[in-house]
Sequence to fold (263 residues):
Amino acid sequence: MKNYSVTKIDTHTHTYFSFDAAENGNSPEKMCEEAVNKGLDAIIFTDHIEVNHEVEHAFPPLNIAEYKKQCAEAKKLYKGKLDVYTGVEMGQITHYPETAEEIAKTNDFDYIIDSVHNTKGEQDPYYVDFTKIPYDKIIYTIDKYFDEYLQLTYVPYIDQFAHLTYPLRYIKKAGIDIDITKWDSVIEQIPKNIIKNGKVYELNSVYVRKNIILPEDHILQMYKDLGGKKIRLGSDAHYIEHVADGFAQAYELIDNIYKGEIK
Ligand SMILES: [Zn+2]
Ligand SMILES: [Zn+2]
Fold:
């Protein structure tokens, strides 16, 4: 992949092929049109493959053939105006590592980002009302999350490590204050492995859109102090208008820490 300025490529976007964006009219083509309007040089589509659901059949699977076909058509249409990459966001890889590896190896995606949406045996925090959860269970949720995330950093075919603060979005939204520094020793191992393996750390700009203060600056500072330089922005857009949304603020956060080192 070319070297793009950090604000000129959206590396985490969903089209209507994602089960949670199916009704949003966000075809690959429409997403490209928006990306061009926002002044981007490139877009990476990363529709969901929730590996556990591929096995447990909780959600409809990604229609990979049709997804790749429409992405290829959009790529052709925008040639010379926008670089288009067909990737995937693979959730819960560590629950079924063999299934995940098979999907990754047989589909030749341009880019693979990881995620932990739900830890094994637990619900996706998106569906949890944390105001009704006892405090020790919340601590347990975070413990389990970072443990599973750390395991992911040993999976070789992942290109980019997505939204490391995912459950905190929903915990903070419920008005619960969490001192993230308690998990520093486990969190620190995550950027260490990302750096060692030459992978990309994603700053997900959802926190800007949702107007919640996440420990993004704390983790980025840690990443920088450990020598991390590969950062890409992802809007996690599930709607057309959210392509590259929050990038100016997210870049400001990077620049406050990196002082012009990341362009
Ligand atoms: Zn995600
Ligand atoms: Zn996503």
Q: What stands out?
A: Residues 135-152 form the longest helix (18 residues). The two ends are 16 Å apart (CA to CA). The mean pLDDT is 96. The chain has one domain: 6-258.
